Amino acid sequence: MYIMIRFSFLFIVLISALQFGSAQQNNQILQEAMTNAKSGDNQKAIEKFEALESHSSADIYYNIGRLYHENNDVANAALNYERALKIDGAHNQANNNLSIIREETDFDIIPVEKMFLIHWWNLLAGSMSANIWMILSLLAAIGLIAAVYFWWIADRSELKKKAFFATVITPVLLGILLALGSTSKLLATNNDYAIIMNKDYDMHEGADDRSPIIKDIEVGTKVEIVDQIDEWIKVVTVDTESGWIKESEIVRI
Questions:
Q1: pTM of the model
Q2: Count of CA atoms in the C-beta half-sphere (13 A) of 216
Q3: Which end of the chain has the smaller Cβ count within 10 Å, N or C?
Q4: Which CATH architecture has domain 193-252?
């Protein structure tokens, strides 16, 4: 028994040491990336930032996008700004820089605006991770249990009324928080959106090079993937026009 406890303790210490060492290494890479960026060596900074992708945050993707933007690489800039927004839908700088890219590039696609409530809901859900929403949901569930308990044992009518009011409101709040957490997870794991990486690529009516061309799609355009046949994928642009392109022309967000 003593040996098992000792082994478990040593294992925990080892894991903690490895995590601490990994964190130190990541901090060093981050500092090197920032130094390269400040000195104007954007390509070196990008390489350093991309080495941290397995530990990425919205800010890291934003900085990668900003550096690509400065290098006039519209496709990779848009890709990384979108990845930042996938983690944090309320990232203002990434949103603003995406707008700048749209203004700087000759886009002939006019986006169809989503309903205000859907846009607002997705923005709210994406403002925090699914784990944070789950913690808030847990707190709401604890609050519900407490409200039911106080309503059950309360002697004074005033306290009983307040507890009853809480038992009515808290389930609604819990339901909203759970729904927001579910939406946040869905947004974070959704792999059905992509960026066109090659300049002026043709979108076809069918999954074949000989199929009639619908239109040219500008580099950096965001599309939704709705179907796939071998190397061909069917995409929908933000103006809801659909067509087929080769998968090699896109990178998923």
A1: 0.69
A2: 8
A3: N
A4: Roll (2.30)
